[in-house]
Amino acid sequence: MVVFKKVLVANRGEIAIRVMRTCKRLNIPTVAIYAPNDKHCKHVLVADKSEELQSDKGMIPYLDIDAILEVAERMKVDAVHPGYGFLSEKSEFARKVEEEGLTWIGPSAKAMSLLGSKLDGREFMESCGVHTTPGTLKPLEDAEEAKREAKRIGYPVMLKAAGGGGGRGMRVVESEGEIEQAFESARAEADKAFKDPKIFMERRVIKPRHIEFQMVGDSKGNGFCLGERECSVQRRNQKLVEETPSCAVNEVMRKEMFPRIEAALVKAGYQSLCTFEFLMDASGELFFMEANTRIQVEHPVTEMVTGLDLVEIQLKIATDKDVSEELLQAKPKGAAIEFRVNAENPFNNFFPAPGRIEKYIEPAGLGIRVDSHAYEGYMVPADYDSMLAKLIVHARDRQEALVSARDALDHYTLTGCKTTIPYHRLVVRTKAFRSGVYSTDFIKEHPPAELLKQESFSTFEVER
User: Fold this and answer.
1) CATH of the domain at 181
2) Residue 116 falls within a domain, yes or no?
3) Mean pLDDT (whole number) for 135-151
4) Sign of CA dihedral 183, 189, 193, 196
5) Of residues 171, 187, 229, 294, which has the active-site annotation?
């Protein structure tokens, strides 16, 4: 039995609700926090208690560590779960939570600093014998150094923000003439988004597949890999569709890869969930990109095939419970696919489309799951991430999962604002996706408007 008197969920929306549901099942009371303009978000209603964040620092309240800790003290919680996004990968937040005498439901601040840093993480993984994409292991000083490194590495290259992700502070550079402008704009965007202007460089892998591994470090010093996820359907370097297992990973690769990355996790002294993200080139070689030191958005597909509750695993590890036998017995079965339902117009370059939800009906049935904070009458704000829900399907194999996904998407109704559901309906009908042979260029090669023409569907059929 997991013993916490009260858990504060330092997040909002879908992931806050996801954490709260596991806590409720385990009879753990929860506290929600909300920004003044976010009091109608569903997580506020789901929690046992809720408190408005009082922040006067000119930032998004969910990023104000002191304001969150003030609520934690006032509500007498004994643990904090950060969810994903916002402060979830900030070692400073973890450290301050621990200094307050509270339990941080996640890895230690030290482990977060090591693996959560893109540059330190790359250097560490190289020391563990895990290949990284050719690039720099230190921040670039200026555009001139960027030019020298690009010449050494070979074009095309990627300039990337050291302090964050999600596509912000990232630029593709095809030639030396583009370096200076790309470096300055990437640095400015990184500084604005993450308060960290440091930029590093990697060789750009042409038409890669994005493969990630769900890792767990238990409280007894063991490392486990619960399988891989394919996350190659992306727009603006952010994922839209994820699935497990990946069509590009075979048993030989798993037997070679799993022990190596499990050993790296143990060497890092890591306890809790972690995701190791890789790029796979055309030859099938995997290159480590970064580690995500928190629960991942797409964790439900792993839950569906393993039968595990990964939030419960986090809670158990945080209370020093032995989960090794539970993890060893969790052998993946079948296939699962997740579709992110975002308030975006896929036929207008996935431009954000906030608005009031008029009608909302979720699909249901065997092997169908929806994690969401959407409801009829909800005014989708423009201030936060556009994701409203995640549709997850699970079946005996990928072919059955595709059939289930098509049916579930056809019965998912959300009107009042544009969403990515119409595009997902096209994706599951597209030969390239159904074949399992695709890359991170999928959306570029199969834009929504073109798919609509190629697959001979009317707008009415797709947007119904």
Assistant:
1) 3.30.1490.20
2) no
3) 94
4) positive
5) 294
